[in-house]
Amino acid sequence: MGLKHLSTLASDRPGNMIIAGADEGMLFFLTTQPLWVSGAIVVGSTTVLAMLGLFVVRRCVAPERLSEHNEVAGFNFATVGVLYAVLLAFAIVVVWEKFSAAETTVAEEAGAAESIFRLSHGIQDPGGADLRQALSEYLAVTVAIDWPAMERGTIGTGTRPARQALDAVYAAFLKTAAAQRIEAPLMSEVMRQLDAIAQGRRARLIASEGTVPGVIWFLLFGGALLTIGFTFFFGMRSLPAQALMTGLLSILIFSELLAIVAIDRPFSGIVKLGPHALANVLELHKAPAGPGGSSERH
Length: 298
What we know:
The protein is an all-alpha fold. It has helices at residues 2-8, 22-32, 35-60, 63-67, 70-119, 127-152, 160-179, 184-208, 214-230, 239-264, 276-284. It has one domain (27-284).
C-alpha cells in the first residue's frame, strides 16, 4: 500500500485541473489580492459601469418607449433573475462546501501525523526515532514550502521538497518494517495513517487549484451582466431612482460573486486556511536531530 502511494506522488500537479489562460490568471489575481482591492474591482467598478450603462440607454431611448414594454420586460427579467439566482446559490454552496472540506482535510492530515508520532513509540529505536525524525522534517517542509507554494499557485516544482520529504517518511518506515519484527496490527495502523497523510496532501493540492471551472465562471459573470442589463430597459419616470435600484442590484450580485472568488482557492488570498494544525503537531512532537533521540510528547 505504501509503495503504491509513493508512485502516485510522482507529480504534484493535479491532473484533472484545466488552466484557462488569461481568464485563470485574472481570477487568481483577484483571489490573491486584499479584500478591498478585489471588492473595488469586482463590486465597485461593475456598479459604476452598470449605472453609467443605464444613463447611456436613456440618452438613446426615450423612457416613454421603454415604458410601453415594461410588462414584457418584467416577465423576462423575472425568468432570467430566477435562473441566475439558482446558479449563483449553487456556486456559493459548492465553493463553501469545498472550503470546509479542505479545512477538514488539513485537520485529518494533522491527526494522522499525530497518530504516527504516538504509534512510533511502539517501534524499537533507532527505527522509531528515524520515523519520527522523517515525519518532523515532512511537517516542517510542508509548513515552510508547501503552503507558500499553494498560496502562489506554483503547484508542481514548488511543492517537490514536501513530496520528497513524504517519500522519506515512507522509506524510513518500510526500512524499519523490513529490519524489525513489528507486530502486524501496529504495522497496519502506521501504514494506514501514512496513507491518510498522502491522500490528505493530494486532496489539499487539488483544492488549492480552485473549485469553480472556467465555464461556470463564464456563466456567473455573463449571467450577472445579463441580469443587470435587463434593468436598463424599464421605463421609470425617475431616472435617479432607477439608477439607484440598478446600483443596489449590482452591489448585491457582485458582492456574492466576490464571496465566491474569495473562497474558491482555500489556501490563497485573505480568506484562506493556514498550516496551524500541522505546525501545532510539529511543535508538540519535536524530534531531535539525529537517530536515537526521543520525541517530546504532551
